[in-house]
## 1
Amino acid sequence: MKAFSFEYKRGTTIIHKLDPRSKFIYTILFTALTVYFVNPLILFLVFLSSVPMVIIAGIGKRWLRSIRGSLFFIAFIFIFNLVGNFWTTGSIADAIIMSISMSLRFIALISIFSAFFLTTSPEDLTQSMVQLKIPYDYALTFNMAMRFVPTLSREAQIIMDAQRSRGLELEKGNIFQRVKNYIPVLIPLIISSFRRAELVADAMESRAFGANKRRTSLYVLTMDRRDLLFISCSLAAFLAILSLKIMLGIQ
Amino acid sequence: MVSCRSFEDVKELIVFEDVSYSYAPGRYAIEHINLSIEKGEVVAILGENGAGKTTLIKHINGLLKPQHGSVIVSGMNTKDTTVATLARYVGLVFQNPDHQLFAETVEKELMFALINFNFQKEEIPRRVEWALKEFGLIEYKDRPPFLLSGGERKRLALASVLCYDPQIVILDEPTTGQDYRQKLHLASLIKKLNSEGKTVVVVTHDIEFAADFIPRAVIMSKGRIIADGKSEELLTNRELLMSASLLPPQLVELSWDLALNPPTIHFDEVVSSVKKLLGGKKS
Ligand SMILES: Nc1ncnc2c1ncn2[C@@H]1O[C@H](COP(=O)(O)OP(=O)(O)OP(=O)(O)O)[C@@H](O)[C@H]1O
Ligand SMILES: [Mg+2]
């Protein structure tokens, strides 16, 4: 549960201060690259592109934690691809290269998204979505969903503790039994989420949410020279990597 | 080493030996806890928000294993014992009932633990019946737990643990959201459990409740136990209460104001002192 809690913490580095839209452009461009290429070296380059951001932003520890937390999935992806590709191609070398690529692709994605979410405050993200003309309702829904992920995972832990105290053994039985074991955990989790959603809705309405069609913003995000520099660098790196395909024919 | 001493053999039922636990590196939620609770005792654990009370009691049924030191419950080291084994002896009722109620009806909710602990088929309805009566839930038997009021849900959560008759009962904040009648009911329930030889640990902010009904108090602050002793001594100690951010019981404040010596948490002692004071003035 901890693995994907891209929990934002306030920071004062350049990366933190960049406009979310600039970081978003980087995220989109490099996500596209991870999907486009299968060559392990290129995927490794894409992964490396996020490292300077992580270092400058000083989020190394939490970034490492996201990656470490996803090791299980990476192992799964690796083995799955290894078996699958060996089955279809019959070549162990090809299968290994393919599995490495797929694992690298996943690591690169995790790394890029960590760099984005760990340095972007939910408020700024919402604001930038609004400035990108996304309807405020959707922007806010997204923001709240992000914000409640850590709350939800902590709550799941408490509920598991409460049910284990009443003799529930989650690891007991065969695979079907085990899935069933989670029902006493999932139901309170869902219900308390609904309860919370209702509470939040009431609290928002009682503060006149949605009373006015036209919202004004206290803070307006602006792009400055740093943003332009960052976007240019991202674009240049993106084009450079892309040109490898055209010039060298790398897949 | 597996210890198979039976439940009755042990006098010191719950023993904490220099226990520390931290959720995140660098900050201990509880630190150097030494505590011993004997069979048949009733103990209140008091302390400010975040003092570590919930963390401490989660060690008793093994939900948390000490990172340093050891916890021995009825002769069993919690490190070598599963939660399911300990939970049969240690009934822990959580702060928030919404974290455990899940069944379609109140009745099924009460059956959950009984089924988990493999109670006999004939035994289950009897215990459910007892719990429904004891906690005034009979009329709600077939209702979904989520439609009960906050206080009723709290009572149901309590009932769903007490119905399997654990030897040690641990209650986290049982009085929040309960009206006075329910508090009195809770107090008499604790008394009854105790008279059956059960050991009861109550975590609470309700200092009046502790003063009125619980003879021993353990006061925590910032992850440590700062005092452990008789309620009537600790709860009349001004400096101690201040340092644990606890509001003194009203009777104690009254006895301070009247300069009674010694101050007391017992209503009749205050009354007789006041009578003496009044009498003294007349003569
Ligand atoms: N799951 C958790 N993860 C991280 N920190 C935690 C967790 N649970 C508790 N803590 C921290 O440990 C400390 C002790 O918490 P604990 O819940 O034991 O306090 P408490 O005495 O029960 O407080 P309260 O009276 O508010 O219930 C607090 O600082 C709390 O923030
Ligand atoms: Mg607590």
## 2
Amino acid sequence: MDIKDIIKPENLVYKKSELLIDTIMHYCPGCSHGVVHKILSEVIDEMGIQEKTIGIAPVGCAVFAYNYIDIDWQEAAHGRAPAVATGVVRLNPDNIVFAYQGDGDLASIGTAEIIHACNRGENIVVIFINNGIYGMTGGQMAPTTLVGQVTSTTPAGRNVDLNGYPMKITELIAQLPGTSYVTRQSVQTAAAVRKCKRSIKKAFQNVIDKKGTSFVEVVSTCNAGWKMTPVGANKWMEENMFPFYPLGDMKDSDKKEVSNN
Amino acid sequence: MAKVRGAVVVDKEGCKGCGVCVEVCPQDVLSLNREVNSRGYHYSYMKNPEACIGCSNCGVVCPDTCLTIYRVKVLESEI
Ligand SMILES: Cc1ncc(C[n+]2csc(CCOP(=O)(O)OP(=O)(O)O)c2C)c(N)n1
Ligand code: SF4
Ligand code: SF4
């Protein structure tokens, strides 16, 4: 059978989501941000919520997310996406609002905002891209950097005496009564991407069902910042990040715990 | 007996040659081209097209969504 007999519209099984704007993303080759953007586009498209969804873009490599997914967006100051999301969803409770944040954005400068938004149980989705460093600014140490991990500001590896301990912020967030669904996923294999997509879909469904905050961490790579190849970075993540940041659901409850409604 | 055949169409200009698709293919179909696209990337291509089963694993992991996948069942007599 000839290839041209296979490449026919009736045999199509996978194509680019209509919601992904037809442009070349600025991300480095192999960057996890691209995969997560793709998943978000597919989920929003499949759920038919394009007109109702509002994304809050972070400061970090994903600052240009609004150029790539064809929905409404608002850009927030560094770390403030959960505060902006709070304002947007409180004024427009029928919209579906998500904050998209890196680990520098969410777990460092924006720690107060994320903890309090989750504790208030704001009816939002949070997508948390944990690549262990500040990607955009040159690969500096983040709160999530592993002990011993080499970054541009820890050339001899992260030292706990000097730099403190890596923070499992997702575990902290799972303790907060305002959250209904807290999970940690990854996107380096096809099976992981499909699983992550199911999690993100569930998080969006929870917001439609007004269940409070749903939080999806994606353990990610920044191969350029880590100074590895894309495939090498995926392996490094599996071997080094997964033991400290184990994948899976941390919380999956029916509703935020305390509610006046 | 029916067999499955697949085919991958690569958006050459969108591909950044990251090689993640090459790594995840269970059938060792894909490889990075010696040639580069206009932005200097060694884009992905089907080195071994006969082996493709259209599983879409490559398309699903591609960060730049440059792969479109087709899949068809073929009868032994048509192979
Ligand atoms: C108020 C403020 N402080 C510092 C910066 C500089 N800055 C830009 S991006 C960034 C870190 C982003 O890292 P992360 O959130 O992990 O995202 P990544 O780029 O890795 O996706 C910093 C510190 C800024 N833009 N604004
Ligand atoms: S995963 Fe995508 S960008 Fe990377 S080499 Fe394959 S087709 Fe190109
Ligand atoms: S569709 Fe499956 S078999 Fe075909 S190239 Fe992609 S990963 Fe390999």
